[in-house]
Amino acid sequence: MIRNAWRFHFGLNLVFTAQYSSSVFALLTR
Question: Which domain of life is it from (predicted)?
């Protein structure tokens, strides 16, 4: 249960980081 929640949180954080970095990259290279 706890490990499953940890994996879910880690995956969510990874997706958020990817979207944020891609957004910043798009702003920088505009």
Answer: Bacteria
- pLDDT tens track, the chain, 30 positions: 778 988 999 999 999 999 999 999 999 998
In this structure, the dihedral spanned by the alpha carbons of residues 2, 4, 7 and 8, taken in order and rounded to 10 degrees, is -110
Cα–Cα distance for residue pair 1/25, rounded to 1 Å: 36
Rounded-to-integer distance, Cα 30 and Cα 24, Å: 10
The dihedral through the CA atoms of 12, 15, 21, 26 has a sign that is negative
